[in-house]
Amino acid sequence: MQLAKIFPILQKGTHTLLQPRCPSPPHPFPNMSIYRLMQWMNTGSKHKSKGEVTRLVKDVLLADDFDVKDLQNFTSDKYLGLLDKDSMDDDS
């Protein structure tokens, strides 16, 4: 890799930072998003079926109202706790 590609360069008196390149996905995946999804599916719990992963993509990730920014600081514990609290409030 050329140094000019990884360090800032001086161009007409201003500093220009080149955008870092995203790594190429491992073969046979066409992009890093699909690679990461398949990596997630095949690691951790063995309870993730092919159908459930496809449904996650089609019904959640590709939904018109889905915004990845909404997941900043997300933890499942937090929202499961809120559901539990809401359920207890309904029983009162």
Describe the structure in your own words.
46% of the residues lie in helices and 7% in strands. The chain contains four helices and two strands; from the N terminus they run αββααα. The protein has helices at 3-6, 32-41, 50-61, 76-91, and strands at 9-11, 14-16. Residues 3-12 have low confidence and may be disordered. By secondary structure, it is mostly helical.
Question: What would you say about this model in short?
Answer:
By secondary structure, this protein is mostly helical. The chain has helices at residues 3-6, 32-41, 50-61, 76-91, and strands at residues 9-11, 14-16. The protein is elongated and about 55 Å long.
Give me some keywords for this one.
single chain; 92 residues; mainly alpha; two-stranded antiparallel ribbon; 46% helix; 7% strand; elongated
Q: What is the count of DSSP helices, taking H or I runs of 4+ residues?
A: 4
Mean pLDDT across the residues is 83
Give the biggest beta sheet. 2 strands, antiparallel
From the alpha carbons, calculate the radius of gyration and give it in angstroms: 21 Å
Helix-strand category: mainly alpha
Helix and strand pattern: HEEHHH
Uncertain parts: 3-12
List the helices and strands and how they pair.
Elements: H1 3-6, E1 9-11, E2 14-16, H2 32-41, H3 50-61, H4 76-91
